[in-house]
Write a sequence for this structure.
């Protein structure tokens, strides 16, 4: 099916390299941003929980809620990073297929 759609399609090898570079840059940017935002959110989350945990009667439940909050946030950012990597792998596969098509066209 992919080969049928690629009939008559041609892209310069330089263009494919540029697209692959842009894909890699976008993937790395999303990953770095997710890591950085997660760290900032963790730091911001700890402030109010730290204040509330100083109140002795509610200290233990506050710490439990804080840990749950941090686990949920970490899971969300982990999911973003995994999804980003998955999209990057699929895009890389598509670019590999296009590159192979271009190589075959170049030999013809």
């Amino acid at each position: 099916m992919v080969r049928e759609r690629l009939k008559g399609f041609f892209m310069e090898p330089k263009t494919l390299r540029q697209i692959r570079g842009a894909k890699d840059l976008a993937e790395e940017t999303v990953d770095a941003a997710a890591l950085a935002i997660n760290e900032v959110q963790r730091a911001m989350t700890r402030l109010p929980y730290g204040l509330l945990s100083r109140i002795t009667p509610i200290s233990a439940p506050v710490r439990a809620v804080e840990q749950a909050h941090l686990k949920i946030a970490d899971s969300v950012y982990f999911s973003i990073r995994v999804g980003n990597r998955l999209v990057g792998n699929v895009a890389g596969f598509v670019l590999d297929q296009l590159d192979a098509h271009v190589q075959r066209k170049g030999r013809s």
